[in-house]
Amino acid sequence: FVFYQVEILDWETKKQLCFLDKVEPNATIREIRLMFHKLYPRWYPARQSIKLDPKGKSLRDEEILQHLPVGTTATLYFKDLGPQIGWTMVFLIEYTGPLFIYFLFYFRMTFVYGLDERFTSSPHPVVNLACICHSFHYIKRLIETVFVHRFSRGTMPLRKIVKNCLYYWGFAAWLAYYINHPLYTPPSYGKKQINFAVIMFLLCEAGNFSIHVVLSDLRRNGSKTRKIPHPTKNPFTWLFFFVSCPNYTYEVGTWISFTIMTQCVPVGLFTLLCFIQMTIWAKDKHCTYLREFKDYPSHRMSIIPFLL
Amino acid sequence: GRSRRRRRGPGALATAYLVIYNVVMTAGWLVIAVGLVRAYLAKGSYHSLYYSIEKPLKFFQTGALLEILHCALGIVPSSVVLTAFQVMSRVFLTWAVTHSVKEVQTEDSVLLFVVAWTITEIIRYSFYTFSLLNHLPYLIKWARYTLFIVLYPMGVSGELLTIYAALPFVRQSGLYSISLPNKYNFSFDYYTFLILVMISYIPIFPQLYFHMLHQRRKVLSHTEEHRKSE
């Protein structure tokens, strides 16, 4: 039984930050992070990137010291990832913003459309419907964040959340401005168009929720390992026969239905950007699945059945 | 010792195509340069020279859009986003400002940026041509990384003054603007957009300028070392 010695150097300056004596061979990186945190209280574990190579990838918490390609005196490198924020908190902030920002425009706060229009309401029922749908969408997301999602990674850099919020909140303000504008024009095909959009919206929201539940169940026991998602008895999950990321498919569907419902170009633009972003994420996830599982269903596409 | 650099550059066919592309572009901008000089000599003044080179300017500046494709295909090692940004800003000025707002075509600021672009592009495209043929004269390299010091601010001044000159005419005619109500529930004010474009020069221009200065120090001092060691 040999004790390890671990020295941790700064990844840039190579200065020795700490030297840990008598480390157990089966110690996990998580434990090493905790030890490092004791010496440097301001660098809490989520902020520490511990790696074998100064320019390499960060080691995961679960990695065990003796399984790493190091001798009994291990040299690890530390990089400060900056202030971190938990994923749950990230989503709560990102989703609460659009919810309340939309209301500022729906209730026509004083500074939005001018003093003459303040607190008036729209004569078009579709505007009320749009507010209900938009709010429903974000409330559903908030509920999912708290009760359904199980995140594989704990945190995200604080800087990124500012960028994300600017994007989501900015777009919410932009599209809410036009939908709730006094000069808003309802859809060209009237009730038919709106009813179709509402049905599509509800189906996609139900579908999206079903997929989130399936994905959450894959991680039911708190395990962080990846498993192949499969369709269940719920018909909404049958999209898994055709695509790897049906949650993104349904999400794009939701925004398409919202575009049809409001017939508003900014909503359409937002939908397009969502589609592009989600396609990138879906392709990424799809590639990861293909790489990790040899028996992955080969006919599955990433986001659009048979196409993409 | 010298570190081994693994360059995965374009294949033979792509290289041949790129050489042809860069030669054609060099020739095109030379045509514009010659056109400017001839028109100046014929007219006796430097006002309103835009009309004499309007067509080749539009053609060759728009042709630069191909460079975005080159990056996307990977035959040129630049970033797609950066190249797209640079080319689109040029194309925007050529078509959405100078072409669309006829009243600014007689402004002297147009000559300012056209001259800056012409000299810059002739040097840039010949730089690429020679680089691809692995025979880059030091003069061209020096020119590319030095003349920008004057040409870049010159071009930016010309561009900003031209946009500024276009503003009143855009406001008057409501060019490219759409207002509520309309069935797409969208509004766009080109006048405000142009002002935002002008403001965006403030953060962007210094960054690009200092980046080029930094590149200059790197590239030209590296060559000096090589020459000294020979």
UniProtKB/TrEMBL annotation, chain A:
**One Pfam family linked to the record:** TECR_N
Q: Tell me where on the tree of life, at the top rank, the source sits.
A: Eukaryota
User: What name goes with this protein?
Assistant: Very-long-chain enoyl-CoA reductase
> Which segments cross the bilayer?
85-107, 166-184, 196-215, 235-250, 256-276
**Pathway in which this enzyme or protein is active:** Lipid metabolism; sphingolipid metabolism; Lipid metabolism; fatty acid biosynthesis; Sphingolipid metabolism
User: In which compartments does the protein localize?
Assistant: Endoplasmic reticulum membrane
Function, in words: Involved in both the production of very long-chain fatty acids for sphingolipid synthesis and the degradation of the sphingosine moiety in sphingolipids through the sphingosine 1-phosphate metabolic pathway. Catalyzes the last of the four reactions of the long-chain fatty acids elongation cycle. This endoplasmic reticulum-bound enzymatic process, allows the addition of 2 carbons to the chain of long- and very long-chain fatty acids/VLCFAs per cycle.
Q: Which GO terms describe its biological process?
A: very long-chain fatty acid biosynthetic process
Family listed? Belongs to the steroid 5-alpha reductase family.
Keyword field contains Transcription regulation = no
Sequence ranges assigned to domain 3-oxo-5-alpha-steroid 4-dehydrogenase C-terminal in this UniProt record: 155-308
What are the EC numbers? 1.3.1.93
**Main location per the UniProt record:** endoplasmic reticulum
* Entry's Gene Ontology cellular component terms: endoplasmic reticulum membrane
> Which InterPro entries does this entry report, sorted A to Z?
3-oxo-5_a-steroid_4-DH_C, SRD5A/TECR, TECR-like_N, Ubiquitin-like_domsf
The keyword Lyase belongs to this UniProt entry's keyword annotation: no
Q: Which UniProt keywords apply?
A: Acetylation, Endoplasmic reticulum, Fatty acid biosynthesis, Fatty acid metabolism, Lipid biosynthesis, Lipid metabolism, Membrane, NADP, Oxidoreductase, Phosphoprotein, Transmembrane, Transmembrane helix
Task: Extract one GO molecular function annotation from the record.
Answer: very-long-chain enoyl-CoA reductase activity
UniProt domain TECR-like N-terminal: residue ranges: 5-80
> What is the membrane topology here?
Multi-pass membrane protein
Q: Name the reaction it catalyses.
A: (2E,7Z,10Z,13Z,16Z,19Z)-docosahexaenoyl-CoA + NADPH + H(+) = (7Z,10Z,13Z,16Z,19Z)-docosapentaenoyl-CoA + NADP(+); octadecanoyl-CoA + NADP(+) = (2E)-octadecenoyl-CoA + NADPH + H(+); (2E,7Z,10Z,13Z,16Z)-docosapentaenoyl-CoA + NADPH + H(+) = (7Z,10Z,13Z,16Z)-docosatetraenoyl-CoA + NADP(+); (2E)-hexadecenoyl-CoA + NADPH + H(+) = hexadecanoyl-CoA + NADP(+)
Signal peptide positions (record): none
Automatic annotation (TrEMBL), chain B:
- Which molecular function GO terms apply here? very-long-chain (3R)-3-hydroxyacyl-CoA dehydratase activity
EC number(s) given by UniProt: 4.2.1.134
Q: How does it sit in the membrane?
A: Multi-pass membrane protein
Q: Name the residues that span the membrane.
A: 20-41, 62-89, 145-170, 190-210
Matching InterPro entries: Tyr_Pase-like_PTPLA
Q: Where in the cell is it found?
A: Endoplasmic reticulum membrane; Membrane
The record lists the catalysed reaction(s) as: a very-long-chain (3R)-3-hydroxyacyl-CoA = a very-long-chain (2E)-enoyl-CoA + H2O; (3R)-hydroxyhexadecanoyl-CoA = (2E)-hexadecenoyl-CoA + H2O
Top EC class per UniProt?
Answer: lyase
> Which Gene Ontology terms of cellular component type are present?
endoplasmic reticulum membrane
Q: Which Pfam families match?
A: PTPLA
Main location as per UniProt: endoplasmic reticulum
Tell me which Gene Ontology terms the entry assigns under biological process. Answer: fatty acid elongation; sphingolipid biosynthetic process; very long-chain fatty acid biosynthetic process
Q: Which UniProt keywords apply?
A: Endoplasmic reticulum, Fatty acid biosynthesis, Fatty acid metabolism, Lipid biosynthesis, Lipid metabolism, Lyase, Membrane, Transmembrane, Transmembrane helix
Superkingdom is Eukaryota
Family note: Belongs to the very long-chain fatty acids dehydratase HACD family.
Q: What does this protein do, in the record's words?
A: Catalyzes the third of the four reactions of the long-chain fatty acids elongation cycle. This endoplasmic reticulum-bound enzymatic process, allows the addition of two carbons to the chain of long- and very long-chain fatty acids/VLCFAs per cycle. This enzyme catalyzes the dehydration of the 3-hydroxyacyl-CoA intermediate into trans-2,3-enoyl-CoA, within each cycle of fatty acid elongation. Thereby, it participates to the production of VLCFAs of different chain lengths that are involved in multiple biological processes as precursors of membrane lipids and lipid mediators.
**Which PANTHER family does the record associate with it?**
VERY-LONG-CHAIN (3R)-3-HYDROXYACYL-COA DEHYDRATASE, VERY-LONG-CHAIN (3R)-3-HYDROXYACYL-COA DEHYDRATASE 2
Record's protein name: Very-long-chain (3R)-3-hydroxyacyl-CoA dehydratase
Q: Please name the gene that encodes this protein.
A: Hacd2
